[in-house]
Description:
Blueprint: H1 4-13, H2 20-27, H3 32-41, E1 46-52, E2 58-64
Antiparallel strand pairs: 1-2
Helix pairs in contact: 1-3
Amino acid sequence: MQTQKSWVLNQLKKGRTVTPLQALDGCGTIRLAAIIHDLRENGVNILTIRATTKAGNKYASYKMVKPK
């Protein structure tokens, strides 16, 4: 069985952007920011993209930054 952390990392490695709703649907986590923090602590370079919905709700999505 795949862990939540490995699911998020696999999505990022595929070049995908991960949002909290995608993480909830994909691996059942509501703690995406905590997983991103752990991945960063392990040396993964992740960009935070802040956005606001049409209703005014704010959220962050995450994308892996590949070295040049």
